[in-house]
Amino acid sequence: METKPLRILVLEDVEDDVGLIARVLQKEGILFETNRVDTRQEFVEALRSYEADVILSDHRLPQFNSFDALKLCRRAGVQIPFILVTGSVSEEFAVSCLKQGADDYVLKSNLIRLPTAIINALKQKALERERKKSDGELRKQNEELVKINKELDSFVYSVSHNLRAPLMSVLGLLNLAKMNDQDNENVLERYFTMMEHSIQKLDETLKEILDYSRNARNNLNIKRVSLHEIVNDSIERLRYMEGSDQIIKEIQINETVPLYSDGYRLSVIFNNLLSNAIKYRDLQKDESYVRFAITVDERKASFYFRDNGIGISEHLLPRVFDMFFRATERSEGAGLGLYIVKETVEKLRGTIVVESTYGQGTSFKFEIPNIHLPAELD
């Protein structure tokens, strides 16, 4: 592999001094190229256009000095080593240079130390970059852990409540049924209907917990997926849901190329969005509908869901994707549905937005990448 030359930006007004620097570096076998500037304007332009690996600067120049140069570097966000190469200086001046941000200083009378100073400064900058990267990753992990712990606390509390409440309701109704006159079939039928409703709430909660767990735990399983099959399967799965037969389902799929994604996770998204459209249909309207419009191209798949249900109040919209959020008492699950939708879309490396007008309906738009190349899985 060919070694790239070290790119050195030299701020120096004496060309002979640049020649001395070059000879010292050549003697040490360092492969390099230099770009010499000696004015403020040239230096600013070089910071913008020349991708230097290191800056060597004299202190005193006709128009400005090394302290000014350091300030310009900071202002430009330059993160490469800055080494002062100058004549004799006092100890106080040397300390001042380092405080200003210089990585090292080398006297022109002792240029033999320059190669080592450059190599050490480059290594130090590389370590700093690695440390910042590690710090950033650690900070991100800590933020994720805080989020997970917060969600876990909410999860344990809310799920225990959502599981216990319908169970206690069923037990209470069973006790009432035992005490009731066995000949009163109407009362018993009402109790059984109420028990069935409680069990449905329990089942809905358990389904949401299972979807949440699978999405968080399992890796992506990328395969070619059939959108027609996924949509039809969701419709069939929810066929016996109360109100499913009262809502018109309009489907439009424009698939110019195959879609490669995680079919299970797409099913989770479809099931939740369709289930919501059915649950929150507007009973006051003559006709209820949900429309699916899906477009697939080489890069991405775009999904648009629109219903004319009860809608969501504007002040509640920012919270619809929160864990355990319920916009209405008609919700029978744990309030995980839309949270799972958002988490699943993000697991598929996509984005989702919601728009809604109370009394008119709700729409969801999301996009996911078409992961059709093995390299995209890395």
Task: Walk me through what this model shows.
Residues 158-372 form the Histidine kinase domain. This is histidine kinase. The chain has helices at 15-27, 40-49, 66-76, 91-100, 114-179, 185-217, 227-237, 263-279, 337-347; strands spanning 6-11, 32-37, 54-57, 82-86, 104-107, 222-225, 247-255, 259-262, 288-296, 300-307, 351-357, 361-369. It has 378 residues and is an alpha/beta fold. The protein folds into 2 domains: 6-132, Rossmann fold; 218-377, Heat Shock Protein 90 (2-Layer Sandwich). α2 (40-49) packs parallel to α3 (66-76) and α8 runs antiparallel to α9 (337-347). The longest helix has 66 residues, at 114-179. 27% of the residues are buried.
Provide a quick synopsis of the model.
With 378 residues, the protein is an alpha/beta fold. Helix content is 48%, strand content 20%.
Mean pLDDT: 83
Oligomeric state of the chains in view? single chain
CATH topology of the largest domain: Heat Shock Protein 90
> Count of DSSP helices?
9
Categorize the overall geometry: elongated
Domain Response regulatory: 7-123
Pfam families: HATPase_c, HisKA, Response_reg
EC number: 2.7.13.3
Domain Histidine kinase: 158-372
